[in-house]
Amino acid sequence: MSVLTHLYANTPKYQELVLRVQGFLVDASLPPLRRDQIPTNTHRLIDLKQSVTITGLGVQPFDDAAAAVLAVYHQFSAHLKEHCLRTWQPERANAYISLTFGNRYLTPVKFSDSEPHADLSEVVDPFNVLRPHLSSQVHLQENVVEYWERQAHPTRPRTSFKRIKPDVIMPGTMVELQVAFTVAKLGQHDYIFLPKLRAICILNRVVHTVSVVLKFSQDYNMSVIKILSARNVSPLKKMKRKVGYDNDKENVNAVEAPQKQLKRLTLNDDRMEVSKA
C-alpha cells in the first residue's frame, strides 16, 4: 500500500498527510454494526466498511476541495505510471459535486504486521454481532474512525470539541472530515485510489434539527443547506497533527489550504503490500 505523507515538524520523519474538508452530509454508513449487516459468507467480512458522502451544493470552496483531492489522485497516478491505477473522479449528488470517504472495519491478520490493535466492542460492535465471526481478521488503529462534535461557547473566543457516538450523525448535518489517501494493489497489476476517512466532526446541526422537528420535505431541506453552505463551507485544509480534536486550539477555518502544499508531498512506499483493498 502506498501512503501520501509529508515531513513532520522540520524533521527527517514522515507522517501520514491528513487533510480537513467541510461539507454537508448527504449519505452515511456508520457504526454500530447490526446483525443484518454481517455477511453469511465469512470471507466477505473484510469488505465491511463505514463511509460518508458530503457535498457543498455548488459552493466554490467545496468544489476547490474536490479539485485538490483530484490533484492527490493525479500525484499517485504519476507515481504509479508503470502500473495501472484505476480511474477516479469526484461523484455527483443531485447534480452537485460530492466526495465519498471510507474506512474498512477490518484488516487481514497477515497484513497487520506490528500495527496496534483497537477495541471493537465500544463503538463498532457493541451488540457483539461481528466479533464471534472473526478468525483471520483484526481491527487495527488503521481501521479506527473518530467521531467528534464542535462545542461553541458564546463567552469564549475559541471552540472546544467533545467525542460522540456515531449514531447521532445524520444526513443534513454540516461536518468536517479528517481524511487521508492511500493506493492499494488489486490482483497482479491494478491499483485503486482510496480516499480514507479518519475522523468526522459535527460542526452544525441546524439543518438536520429543522428537518426533524418541522418535518420539511427533502427538497426544502436541501435548499436550506445550500443557503447555509454559502457562508459556512471552507476549502480543503492541511492538518498539523494526525487525527482528532484533542486539545485542538486552532480555528477550524484558519488552517492553510493544501493546494499550495501538494508539490512538496511525497508518496511513502515503506508500507507497500500486495493486498486486496
How does this model look, in words?
It is a single chain. The longest helix is centred in the first third of the chain and has 20 residues, at 60-79. It is built from three helices and 15 strands. It has helices at residues 60-79, 206-214, 218-232; strands at residues 2-7, 14-16, 19-29, 49-55, 84-85, 91-93, 96-104, 107-108, 137-138, 146-151, 160-163, 174-186, 190-204, 237-238, 266-268. The protein is globular and about 55 Å long. The protein is 16% helix and 32% strand. Strand 1 (2-7) and strand 2 (14-16) form a beta hairpin. It starts with a strand and ends in a 9-residue tail after the last strand. The strands form two sheets. Strands 1, 2, 3, 4, 5, 6, 7, 10, 11, 12, 13, 14 and 15 form a 13-stranded mixed beta sheet that branches. A two-stranded antiparallel sheet has the order 8-9. With 277 residues, it is of the alpha+beta class. Helix 2 (206-214) packs antiparallel against helix 3.
Topology:
Elements: E1 2-7, E2 14-16, E3 19-29, E4 49-55, H1 60-79, E5 84-85, E6 91-93, E7 96-104, E8 107-108, E9 137-138, E10 146-151, E11 160-163, E12 174-186, E13 190-204, H2 206-214, H3 218-232, E14 237-238, E15 266-268
Parallel strand pairs: 5-13, 10-13
Antiparallel strand pairs: 1-2, 1-12, 1-15, 3-4, 3-12, 3-14, 4-7, 6-7, 8-9, 10-11, 12-13
Helix pairs in contact: 2-3
The gist of it:
The protein has 277 residues and is α+β, with helices and mostly antiparallel strands.
